[in-house]
Design a protein that fits this description.
- This protein is mainly beta.
- The chain has a single domain, classed as 3 Solenoid (UDP N-Acetylglucosamine Acyltransferase, domain 1), CATH 2.160.10.
- It is built from two helices and 26 strands.
- The relative contact order is 0.10.
């Protein structure tokens, strides 16, 4: 019944009353948050800091926890979800399972698909630009013959361009950019770098970019 009530409240227009209703249903929504009509299906806990804004028509499904920091912006048509964990999956970090965590001043643009089965984390002042970014946090690994589950990360002061992908367990380091169409695999650790290609590799140092100053 609680899940159905959250769905019904989720499609209401943004208002302080909507925030109070979500809080009455067990969530922690700051009064200043603006939650336009979205689909909220089976979200364990939502924690929204002051200034959070969700534009309309995104879908959020199956998340164990959804934590959005101060002034986070999520635009339209995003699909953010987590799949159930089964006993045969190989889980790297059980604490991260089903978690979406976006730190202060970060944003998602339009029409992205973010799998949070293993957990997805964004640092402060990070951004997912353009359209059609895909984040994976669970996949079949033929090397072990099982589905592996691991968190993926977009570091602080970093951004990914349109139609990029983060594979399961991938990290975009702090103060980095992933160029359009790039596929980030696990193992990147060089900061202040533009990555690009399939798989993504360092292209050039970007310490001289204005946004890095």
């Amino acid at each position: 019944m609680r899940a159905v009530l959250v769905v019904l409240v989720g499609v209401l227009p943004a208002s302080p009353t909507k925030n109070r209703l979500l809080n009455a249903l067990g969530h922690r929504i700051d009064p200043s948050a603006r939650i336009h009509p979205v689909l909220l299906w089976r979200i364990g806990l939502m924690e929204f800091a002051p200034g959070v804004t969700l534009w309309s028509l995104s879908r959020f499904r199956g998340l164990r926890r959804m934590t959005l920091g101060r002034d986070v912006l999520i635009m339209r048509f995003n699909h953010i979800y987590a799949e159930p964990i089964t006993a045969d999956m190989l889980v790297a970090d059980s604490d991260a399972v089903g978690v979406l965590s976006i730190a202060d001043k970060s944003m998602l643009n339009l029409n992205h698909t973010i799998d949070c089965t293993g957990g997805f984390f964004m640092g402060t002042w990070s951004g997912m630009g353009g359209r059609e970014v895909f984040v994976s946090t669970h996949e079949f690994d033929p090397a072990v013959g099982r589905v592996t589950v691991a968190p993926s990360w977009l570091g602080s002061n970093s951004m990914v361009a349109a139609r990029t992908s983060l594979s399961t367990g991938a990290v975009v380091p702090d103060r980095c950019a992933l160029g359009m169409g790039g596929v980030m695999m696990p193992g990147a650790d060089t900061q202040e770098t533009l990555y690009g290609g399939v798989p993504a590799r360092p292209v050039r140092d970007i310490a001289d970019w204005t946004v890095m100053q």
